[in-house]
Amino acid sequence: MSGDNELTSMTVSLPASQKAYVKAQAAASGCSTPSEYVRRLIYADQRAREQEEFERKILEGLDSPTREMSSEDWQELRSTLRKELSKRRKVK
Q1: In the chain, how many domains are there?
Q2: Over the chain, what HEC string results?
Q3: What pLDDT is stored for residue 92 in this prediction?
Q4: Is residue 60 part of a domain?
Q5: Nearest one of 51, 50, 29 to 40, comparing CA atoms
Q6: Spans of the chain, pLDDT less than 50
Q7: Domain carrying residue 49
């Protein structure tokens, strides 16, 4: 699910009915433990929020003023993207 595989503990208090629900859903969804089920839920929520942010940025871009791109604009964009990709590769 994530590049960060180091697990830590967190205590969550639930009413008995929710605890039973989580255990049942974990078993029904093929998770080996309720913790795995909760991690999957959190992972799905993270992805959904990332998708929402991505869509917001796309809509923001579509709503921004437009103009024709010059060859210099394209060159600058390529350079910026290459630098960003290079930074991201170094981080991983």
Answers
A1: 1
A2: CCCCCCCCCCCCCCCHHHHHHHHHHHHHCCCCCHHHHHHHHHHHHHHHHHHHHHHHHHHHHHHCCCCCCCHHHHHHHHHHHHHHHHHHHHHC
A3: 61
A4: yes
A5: 29
A6: none
A7: 16-65
Q: Is residue 84 part of a domain?
A: no
Asked whether 60 and 44 are in contact (CB, 8 A), the reply is: no
Token code pair at residue 84: 């960003």
Q: List, for residues 12-35, the tens digit of each pLDDT value.
A: 999 999 999 999 999 999 999 999
Model pLDDT, residue 3: 58
pLDDT of 54: 97
Is the residue at 80 inside a domain? Answer: no
The Cα 92–Cα 88 span in angstroms is 7
- pLDDT value at position 88? 82
Is residue 70 assigned to a domain? no
